[in-house]
């Protein structure tokens, strides 16, 4: 099953590359700057560690005015797609995860992103952000107690079955749907895997694989519509391809306790950012 998954992902990748290269033939600006290359390297390094790349890249774009605001979504997607797929190939091949758990959670994420977007998009964004941020803070506290043996410990399982698997697929579907509002997918997915007793490192192929199957299609739409900055997107891609394997080696070599602390940091960071965004969203609306 894993071989078929990687083969399908390769088809998605080649299709996206073909679309992008065809569009670049008519692009007038195709030379990435040093700033865009460094941005791609740094943001994809941290993305590979599970922190996410969109929020950090957007912050850099806003601070440096590297990309006009209206082109930020398309540039993020177009530029980060190939590094994200690279991450998925590395983690799916290198980190052992039960194939059934992996494929069903990826399928749930794909379903949630495409078919749940219409419903989720109608929800007030700041309320969703408050809910997700609060849930992440609760998860952080649970994992913190677990680290100090003050809460029933999870496990180091590499797969799920029965009720836990149903819960995992259902919540991963919901997380992917919510992510269409611009809310991160990585931290909730990492939280879910940890709370269900799986090895935190097992979250990486699951969340990277989910994103890798979603991004090529969305990015192709931006590219075809020319709603992105080509040179900056190329810089993100080239820089990201260099940053991903370095960070992947770090993650793969982490002992379980260190991996759990990393997950907790990601969750706390995401929770704070989510609640900050909710405050901003409410007061700007």
Structure description:
The chain has 285 residues and is mostly helical. The protein has 12 helices and no strands. The protein has one domain. Helix 1 (2-24) packs parallel to helix 10 (203-224), helix 5 packs parallel to helix 8 (162-179) and helix 9 runs antiparallel to helix 10. The chain is globular.
Structure summarized in a few sentences:
77% of the residues lie in helices and 0% in strands.
Beta-strand proportion? under 5%
What characterizes the major β-sheet?
none
**Gyration radius, rounded:** 18 Å
Q: What structural class results from the helix and strand content?
A: mainly alpha
Task: Please provide the count of β strands.
Answer: 0
Helical segment tally?
A: 12
Order of helices and strands: HHHHHHHHHHHH
List the helices and strands and how they pair.
Elements: H1 2-24, H2 34-48, H3 54-64, H4 72-94, H5 99-115, H6 117-120, H7 125-147, H8 162-179, H9 186-195, H10 203-224, H11 230-253, H12 256-284
Helix pairs in contact: 1-4, 1-10, 2-4, 2-11, 3-4, 4-10, 4-11, 5-8, 5-10, 7-9, 7-12, 8-9, 9-10, 9-12
Keywords:
12 helices, mainly alpha, 285 residues
């Amino acid at each position: 099953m894993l071989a078929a998954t990687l083969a399908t992902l390769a088809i998605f990748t080649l299709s996206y590359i073909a679309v992008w290269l065809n569009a670049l033939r008519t692009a007038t600006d195709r030379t990435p700057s040093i700033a865009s290359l460094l941005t791609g390297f740094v943001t994809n390094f941290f993305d590979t560690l599970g922190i996410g790349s969109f929020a950090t890249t957007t912050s850099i774009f806003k601070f440096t005015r590297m990309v006009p605001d209206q082109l930020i979504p398309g540039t993020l997607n177009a530029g980060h797609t190939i590094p994200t797929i690279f991450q998925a190939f590395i983690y799916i091949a290198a980190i052992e995860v039960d194939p059934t758990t992996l494929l069903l959670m990826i399928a749930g994420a794909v379903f949630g992103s495409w078919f749940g977007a219409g419903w989720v998009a109608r929800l007030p964004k700041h309320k969703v952000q408050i809910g997700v941020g609060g849930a992440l803070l609760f998860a952080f506290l649970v994992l913190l107690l677990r680290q100090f043996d003050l809460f029933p410990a999870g496990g180091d399982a590499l797969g799920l079955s029965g009720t836990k698997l149903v819960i995992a697929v259902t919540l991963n579907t919901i997380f992917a749907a919510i992510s269409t509002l611009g809310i991160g997918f990585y931290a909730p997915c990492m939280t879910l895997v940890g709370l269900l007793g799986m090895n935190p490192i097992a979250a990486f192929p699951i969340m990277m694989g989910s994103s890798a199957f979603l991004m090529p299609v969305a990015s192709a739409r931006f590219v075809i519509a020319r709603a992105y900055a080509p040179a900056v997107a190329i810089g993100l891609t080239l820089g990201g391809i260099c940053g991903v394997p370095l960070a992947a080696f770090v993650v793969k070599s982490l002992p379980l306790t260190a991996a759990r602390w990393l997950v907790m940091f990601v969750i706390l960071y995401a929770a704070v950012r989510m609640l900050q965004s909710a405050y901003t969203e409410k007061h700007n609306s």
